[in-house]
Amino acid sequence: MASNSPARGKHRRPRRSARSRPTLASVAVLTAAGAGSLSGAASADTPSSSATAVADTGLAQAEGYQHNLVRTFSTQVIAQQTQAEAVAKAKAEALARAEAAAEAKAKAAEAARQRAAAAARAKAAAAAKAAEEAKAKAAAEARAQAAAAASSYADDLDGWIRHALAIMQQHGIPGTYDGIYRNVMRESSGNPNAVNLTDSNATAGTPSQGLLQVIQPTFEAYHIAGTSWSITDPVANIVAACNYAYHQYGSIDNVNSAY
């Protein structure tokens, strides 16, 4: 038998899927739509007190759901912001530690460089001091040997020439007793303190002096270590003059006139 009443379930509200949660915007739209339909229904028919209560309850539920969504969204935003701040803080702390480590490494390297430089300077100073001491010791030994050798030669022209020949032999300077004696007698007549005050050298301010009449610049240029620095010292004068003759003429033996 046909019934005029609508079939059960035809106008049921469709179930919402558990996965399709409404967004904040959709809730606002639905809320506005519900409010509009309720107001429209109220204008069409005069609602009973129970209908009004149902409408108020729907509005309250919609507003509550909206507030819950807002709170959930705000909580998520705050959590994400807190996490981002924590990550940024961790990165900043890691960067600060890396910079501190790099600075400490640089300071350690600079300290090591300074220690190495100080050690090198100390080593160089010690080496220079040792070299100076060795030089002084060698000079002292040379003077001692020269003094010992001088004591074995007579303090006259013969002894001076023989002593000079011994030193010349040690330094590879050629010359013979006769060549030295001949030039000494021509230049100074055997006087170790002879000074020529009349030639061009004297006019220039460097007079010829000593047994072999050498000037000061020549004596200093051809001086032999271990002999006296006095130009009138007989042995030093002979050795320096013979060294000059060696470089200029091959030997004092090849000198037969003023040189």
From the spread of the alpha carbons, the general shape counts as rod-shaped
Helix content: 55-70%
The assigned structural class equals mainly alpha
CATH architecture of the domain at 155-254: Orthogonal Bundle
The CATH C-level name of the domain at 155-254 is Mainly Alpha
CATH topology group of the domain at 155-254: Lysozyme
Low confidence ranges: 1-11, 16-20, 27-32, 34-46
Number of strands: 2
Largest sheet: 2 strands, antiparallel
By DSSP (H or I, 4+ residues per run), the number of helices equals 7
Distance between the termini: 165 Å
- Calculate Rg over CA atoms: 60 Å
Task: Please describe what this structure looks like.
The chain is mainly alpha-helical. Among the domains are: 72 residues; 100 residues, Lysozyme. It has a two-stranded antiparallel sheet with strand order 1-2. α1 runs antiparallel to α2 and α3 crosses α7. The N terminus is likely disordered. This is Transglycosylase SLT domain-containing protein. Keywords: Coiled coil, Signal.
